Amino acid sequence: MKVIFVISLLSLASAYPAEEEEPNFENGDPMLREDLFEGDIVIDDNLLSLLEGRSGADSNPKILWPKGVVPYSFAPQLGQKTRNLFHKAVAHIQNKTCLQFRETSAPTARIVVYPGKGCNSNIGRTGRTQTLNLQPNNPSGCEFFGTIVHEILHAVGFLHEHTRSDRDSYVRINWNNIKQKAQHNFRKRTPSQNHLYGGFDYYSLMMYTEYAFRNR
């Protein structure tokens, strides 16, 4: 089954569950790095292929995880809090989709979770060991359920909801309120760059916050 079809099965009411503390972004949102595509996506051949309209996440078999099985492992230095939240996040995704996550140390193409800078991932499967960074909370970091689900969904092939080709029918972008050098992060995709399954989801975990990259 194609990975993109899991979008119709995700019923995610909120990025941050009521029982979880909300992120502290006083020192900046770690999901919004200006050197990455749209703040948290690693620029690689998968992404460039998609942006050039050569293939979408649902039509490029190289970007999909074979048989819907996603192998992953943890870097030795990753803290226990992050590991626990990652396990919670993958259990949530497995419960809502046909994807299965398998922790493994085998030398195979897999996601390796690191306590690196920011919260970021590749789009889909790269065919090799790929890094998913989850910066510890100190005080701003990625150790939040919604944030981790967001990055995992990037790793299985999802892009951001707010850059859908039809987004202007649902939201208004206040360009004057966005840092000029960050405005490229809000460019919507063309129809050839995405295939839409279902309507626009205002509550999607793949949507920016309303003040992302704002002028201060």
UniProtKB/TrEMBL annotation:
Pfam families found in the cross-reference section: Astacin
Keyword set, alphabetical order: Hydrolase, Metal-binding, Metalloprotease, Protease, Signal, Zinc
Cofactor binding notes: Binds 1 zinc ion per subunit.
Occurrences of domain Peptidase M12A (ranges): 54-216
Enzymatic class: hydrolase
Annotated positions binding Zn(2+): H150, H154, H160
Co-factor(s): Zn(2+)
Active-site residue list: E151
GO terms (BP aspect): proteolysis
Extent of the signal sequence: 1-15
EC number: 3.4.24.-
GO MF annotation list: metalloendopeptidase activity; zinc ion binding
Annotated function: Zinc metalloprotease. Provoques deadhesion of endothelial cells from cell cultures, and also degradation of fibronectin, fibrinogen and gelatin in vitro. Its role in the venom is not fully understood but it might act as a spreading factor that facilitates diffusion of other venom toxins. Alternatively, it might be involved in the proteolytic processing of other venom toxins or it might play a role in extra-oral digestion of prey.
PANTHER family, per the entry: DISCOIDIN, CUB, EGF, LAMININ , AND ZINC METALLOPROTEASE DOMAIN CONTAINING, METALLOENDOPEPTIDASE
Subunit note: Monomer.
Protein name: Metalloendopeptidase
Organism of provenance: Plectreurys tristis
